[in-house]
Every structure is written in C-alpha cells, then in structure tokens.
Amino acid sequence: MRPEVLFPLFQPVTTITGVGPRIAGLIGRVAGPRKLDLCLKLPTGLVDRRFAPSVAEAPDGRIATFTLLVEEHQAPPHRSRLPYKVRCRDETGTIDLVFFNARADYLASALPVGEKRVVSGRVERYRATLQMIHPDVIERPERWTLTMAVEPVYPSTQGLGPRIYRRAVSYTLNEVPDLPEWQSASVLVREAWPGWRQALLAAHCPEDAGGVLAAHPARRRLAYDELLAGQLAMALVRHHQRRGTARPYRLGGPAYEAVETNLPFALTGAQRRTLAEIGGDLASGKRMMRLLQGDVGSGKTVVAALAAAAAHDAGGQAAIMAPTEILAQQHFETLSAILAPAGLEVGLLTGRSRAGPRRTTLVALASGALPAVVGTHALFQERIAFADLRLAVIDEQHRFGVEQRLALTDKGQDVHTLAMTATPIPRTLLMTTYGDLDTSRLDEKPPGRKSIETRVLRMEQLDRIVERIRAAAADGRRAYWVCPLVEESDKTDAAAAEARFVTLQPIFGDRMALIHGRMTADSKARAMAAFAEGTASLLVATTVIEVGVDVPAADIMVIEQAERFGLAQLHQLRGRIGRGGQTGACVLLYGAPLSQAAEKRLRLLRECDDGFRIAEADLELRGAGELLGTRQSGLPAFRVADLDEHGDMLRMARDEARLIVNRDPDLSGPRGTALRVLLYLFERDAGVRLLRSG
C-alpha cells in the first residue's frame, strides 16, 4: 500500500480550491491529473518584475513594475478598432495602459479612477508616449509583495492562464508533506543539497534566473532522487530474479547439436562469444538476465533458437515474445525452420490465432508436448500455462515494460530471461533502461551479408527515383517506400502513406501493397504476404516495418523526407534490405533547406553502417530527451531528470542502488522505510511490488 504520508500528493487536482473539471482538464494536458504531477513539473523560465523605476526613467523594451495613480479611462468610439487606453501617472510622468478588445466594465473595476495600482509588463514608446500593452499584472498595492515579483514560467496550453496555473501550484506546494530523508547524510553534505521538500520549494520558487537551471543544487537534488528511484527499482528486480538457485543446465545437448549442425552457415565469432556468455549464465545455478544487443542482420534469432533448443534438452520449454503480430509471425516461421532438424515444433499465439488452433496450442503447452511458442502480449495472460517454462526470450525489449517481462517469467519456476534488441542502445541509456540486465553484443554480420549503398538526394528528384524503381520492379526486384514521420501520430503517418500510395498507383497498379499502423491485423498480414511472395513489387509503408520485417528478396528502400527521422531509426529501416545476399540500395530523400543537425545525420548514415557507432552519434546529436520519446515507449520518460544535464549522476545512482540492495535487500532498515517512500513517490511500482511479494 502507498504510504499514508503521500496521500495528499496523489489526490486529483480537482481537490484544489478553484479548480473545476474544465481547469483540471487543461492542467492535465500540461502536467497531469494529480497534485504530484504539479510538483514534478518544474518551471522552465523566470520573469523578474523586481525592476521598479520611475515612469520618467523607464527604458524602452524592458519589463518594469510601477505603482501608479489611475487618472483617466479613454474608451474608443463604438465599433471602433482603436484600443482602450487607461492613463496613469506617478510623480515623474504619465504612461498609457493599452488594451485591445477590452471589456470596459472589467477595466473600470480593475483600474478605478483616483486609486493606485501596481502594474507590471513590458514598456515601450509609441511616438512620444510611454505605454504598456496588456499589463501582465494589475494588483492593489497592499497585496503586492516582493515574492510576487519573481514569477516562475511553466509550460502552458490554450485556455489555461499562467496565474491560474501558478495558483494551483502554490496551493499544492503548501500541502507538500515533510518526507523521511532517503538520501545518505554523506551525499547531502558532499553535494550541499537541501532536503526534499526544501529542494521542491526552491525549484518552484527560484530567487533568480539561476534557480531554473539544471545545475542548481535544488534541481540536481530532485533529479538525483528520480535517478536513484529508477536504479533502485531495477536493482530490486535484479536481486529478486537472481535470489535463490535456478536449475542449472548446459548448452550442447542433442537438440542443440542438431540445430547448430544443420545451420546453412557457420556461426560468427560474436555469436559464439554470446552463446558462451549465455551458457555460463545457464550453468551458474542463478537466473539468467541478459540483454542481447545486435545490429540489424547480426543473427540474434539464431542465438535465441539455440538457447531454446538447450532449454528443451534440459526438459523445459521456451517462450519468445514479440511486440507486434507481424514480427511474431516472422519469428514463428524463422524459428520453425531453424528448429525443425531437431524435431522441435513451435507454436504461435497472437490476437489473430483462431479458437481451434489456439486451444490445441494451450493444451500442448500445459502438457509439455510443445517445446516452444512464439507470441505477442497474449503470452502472459493468466489462462496460459506452461508445463515447465525455462527460457523467456523477449524481442525488442524496449517495447515492453518491466511489469510485462515479470508477468511472463512468473509463468515458470526460475525462468531464464534473454532480452533482445535490434536497436543498439547508447551506454547512458543502457544504465537507465536495462540496469538489471547483463549485456552481450553481436557486433559482426553473418557471412554473405552484402553492404548497402546509401544515396542522399533532394525531394525534387522523386520522379527520377520512381522511374528507377519501376525499371527494377520490371526486372523482378522488390522495394520499400517509407513515408515521412509527420508527427507523433499513427493517424497522420498513415495519411502520408495513403497519399503516396495513391500517387504511385497509376505507375505500379496492382503490383503495389500498403501497410501502416491503423490497418487491421488481417490487412497488414495480407499486404506483407503479397510483398514477401512477390505479387507486390513495391510496399508503401510507415515505420511499422522498422523492426523485424524480413523479406530477403527486397533490396531497394526509399525513405521520404529522411531528415524527419532520427539516425537510429533510419539505420533500422535501412536494415530491412540487403538480407538476401545481394547488394542493397537505400535512397534518403530530403526536403531543402536542411538544418545543420539533419545534414550531419544523413552524412553519417551515408558513410557508416555500424549501428553501435550510429546509436552513440544519435544520442550526441539529438540528446537523451528526444531518444526517450513516445516512439520508444518502453524507455523511461523522466519527470525531473534530464540525462543531457544530469547524466553525470547516473553512475553514482546506480552504485548507490546496488550498495543499498546488498546491505538491505528488503528495505526493512531505518533508511529502507524512507527509500520505499521514494519508490512510491516516483511510481517505480515493479520494485515496490517485489518488496511486497517478499
């Protein structure tokens, strides 16, 4: 259960005085629906209104604050487009407050003639007159305080005024409880950090412009809290999964040998090294928790197949989980072919599985008759049972959360985990996302994989490219046409693909297929089948084909408006071609003018095909913030920490988390109680759940 001390922070914002459903909805867009969300959405800037010159001394173009006597209202003629003016003065001169589309009754109440008001905003000169257009602040002098003169600036949305939002934040901050200190005294002293509540108040109420910088001690303290919560949750997962003993077994049994002997190629050195690492894990008597990073086409599926064969040799079963039905279907076909020489049958479970075959598969899994199964999220549903699940292979790990991984491994006793990703992960992100896993790299391509020739061309050359693809299709070759990433929306990406499909159809006719994320699973499967079988020579697609799609005969790819994609994503897309032994051709079409960063991305992609180097360059060019976006949904989106600014504290948080778990794995000591509060505060539920389950 969540600690009672945190209850106020998890209340909805509708419990704030003056915040009804409409305002709550707007606040939800900016920060979130709870008071905690207001706390963790820190200001992005500062407006300093402490500059208070006389009217005569006010410089043009600067924000200034005056105490003025209201002299006269000058309302424009009826239906005139002229502004409403209120003339005010101090001892040194006059200034006009200017309002467009003004409500006269409101201004008469806010600025009554003969009374003084504190007014703040940007001053400018119009002809010989000093004026302030739409003042930001109009306040009674007795209510104005110096603390009100320093205003934090928050992200906003249409319809939500900054004063309303700041009032909601202020109300929430007044309710923030004093929480038990989870940081060690030595860290607080060494870093000169305040307590958590003091840090939160300082971050929201900065005294000067330095208070909104990532390097400010209050912000670094809060960022480190978040990093520590994440690293501690992963360390607890790791400890939980490695706790106790696991039944050891070795590679090299009859099924394993049959699979390896019948491979149509020799294993690469990287594959042999990775299998040795996996073999060491399996023989150790502890649960394996390993991440296999492999560049596109490096042979991860073969490694997974050999590990599955070893699980069968040990009397157990293997489950391979993929994020999409397309990828699951392809894994099913590939693994079935690889495991067939050992006489091992592979089952398939997805949302499209028909009732009859599904029942047969479930019975075979429960009885132990089926040694391996491939599936999507369907695999960890409650009604699916295994006779003896020994190995869980999770492909494209970043598409699944820790909770989902645990749900699959809970299907057996001491289940070994092999997570795989075709997207090489930069070192910084490895620590934040996969800190609970050991890592292996496949950094060699299998023999026979040809290089891909990459060209960078302007969009104006599109007609020339279309003609070349038409000629290639006439020779029996196949091509992908990837449509631009319009924005973070499947809907708009789908519209771009549909529009391109329509423009190309007069040229390619029924030799085309279309695939995007908003199509039904059956429609996507039909489109992929037509392309794989060759009845379609051109597949127009969105980035739904980015991962795992394997059509060896496809050797041409056009990526339209490539400047809109990240480096790693372009590399992933390019990896879909050149898989059939022929040299592939990738054309990156860009719209001019190119930004400097986009030009660097495209140049590097043209010159380099090393996914690990590309991943590091992508992090350097785009920053961690963009890489942690919604399109890589399993990666943690930090609320306070910014890896570009706070990445130096990541190793410190990881080391601290491991030390904590080594000393107090159940978080039952005095500091452990406070650390449980930290985990709940940042909603690292996987770590908390493991503590609850013992």
Task: Give the gist of this structure.
With 694 residues, the chain is of the alpha/beta class.
How many angstroms separate the termini? 14 Å
- The beta-strand count equals 21
Overall mean pLDDT: 89
Q: Sheet bearing the most strands, described?
A: 7 strands, parallel
Strand order within the widest beta sheet: 11-12-10-13-14-9-15
Cα Rg: 31 Å
Secondary-structure content class? alpha/beta
Number of helices: 25
Residue share in β-strands: 15-25%
Structure in words:
By secondary structure, the chain is of the alpha/beta class. Strand 3 and strand 4 (94-99) form a beta hairpin. The strands form four sheets. It has a seven-stranded parallel β-sheet with strand order 11-12-10-13-14-9-15, with helices on both faces. Strands 16-21-20-17-19-18 form a six-stranded parallel β-sheet, sandwiched between helices. The model is unreliable at 628-635 (pLDDT under 50). It is globular, with a radius of gyration of 31 Å.
List keywords for this structure.
seven-stranded parallel beta sheet, 694 residues, six-stranded parallel beta sheet, 21 strands, 40% helix, alpha/beta
Q: What topology emerges from the helices and strands here?
A:
Blueprint: H1 21-30, H2 35-40, E1 45-48, E2 63-74, E3 84-89, E4 94-99, H3 104-110, E5 116-126, E6 129-133, E7 137-139, E8 150-153, H4 162-175, H5 185-191, H6 196-204, H7 217-242, H8 254-261, H9 269-283, E9 289-294, H10 300-313, E10 317-321, H11 325-339, E11 346-349, H12 355-367, E12 372-375, E13 389-395, H13 402-409, E14 416-421, H14 427-433, E15 438-442, E16 452-458, H15 462-474, E17 478-482, H16 490-508, E18 512-515, H17 521-533, E19 538-541, E20 554-559, H18 567-574, E21 584-590, H19 596-607, H20 611-622, H21 624-627, H22 643-646, H23 650-663, H24 670-681, H25 685-693
Helix pairs in contact: 6-7, 7-23, 7-25, 8-10, 9-10, 10-11, 18-20, 19-20
